[in-house]
Amino acid sequence: MTAPSHRCPAPIVQNISITILATLPATPKIPTIGHDLIWKTANEMAATFAEDQYGRKVDRCLSDTLLKFGGGMILGSVFSLVFFKRRAWPIIMGSGFGVGVAYNNCERSLNSAK
After folding, report:
1. Any idea where this protein resides (predicted)?
2. How many domains does the chain have?
């Protein structure tokens, strides 16, 4: 006795791939200028307002500040526990460095040429 074959016929797979390719948009991709290179379609670029771009930059700055503040606090805590006999100043200094680096990145991002 041989086991039945459960293979999918090839024409069905080809039809699916042709359908997927046919549904892709035909608009050209245009690179935008900013913090990082993001590809957008021409329709998306026409619908973006300056306020939305500024809001995205501010959101990115806030999340960057929280990450750098937390990282500095964690690194300062490790140094405080390992090297400085549980003093508070390494934690405060690490957090301050994190906020300072985040502030520099935000200032550069918000003042970049458009």
Report:
1. Mitochondrion inner membrane
2. 1
